[in-house]
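Onboarding guide, step 5: your first structure request.
Type a short instruction followed by the sequence, for example:

Predict the 3D structure of this protein.
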Amino acid sequence: MSVPCVRVRPTDGETTRAMLADRNLVHDAYDITVTDGWLYVPVTNGWAGSPSSTRTTTSAHNRLPTR
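The system replies with structure tokens like these:
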């Protein structure tokens, strides 16, 4: 499944993830993935971007429901 993601260098990963989470933009149904040295943070459609990141789409894995 293709999901909108923010592609970010691992050194900027936590800062970017926290910024997106503060704005409720991290898509909680999918996991953050790593491909070819980049982190892909799944985002909702309200993403506006940041200078250290790129919006793209990637295959993402659904999170398993927690009980």
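Each response can be followed by summary notes, for example: Residues 13-22 form the longest helix (10 residues).
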